[in-house]
Amino acid sequence: MASHRVIDVMTKKVVYLPAATPLDExxxxxREADIGDVVVTEGQSLAGMVTDRDIVVRAVAxxxxxxDITVGEVASHGIVMIEQTATVTEAADLMRERSVRRILVxxxxxxxxxxxxxxxxxxxxxxxxxxxxxxxxxPNN
Length: 141
Known about the structure:
CBS-domain; 6 strands; alpha/beta
């Protein structure tokens, strides 16, 4: 696993939404882009990330109306980043250390270039593993 780099396994499709965006719009953006997360911005700054799980746990499960809540209200604000030249082992270690399933990927100038998820690591590095097979399976929708 150490010889593979984050740039080789990351998802390059990044969707940015302003913090004031309603959650239902974020959910539609995720569906349309076939992704499970969006990066939240405040002006030119990265403010956090919202995942499909955040929408469920922090809004729907709390009986809050997704059209009345913004992505800024439910975003995870502790941004975790890794450089694209890091190894997938370093990415996995960082995920374990910070207890996250996704990490923002930046270039050497700290510009965002992608997102790497636990599923990306499994599917692209070890597709025959149980996690790789689960993560790589077609959605059941």
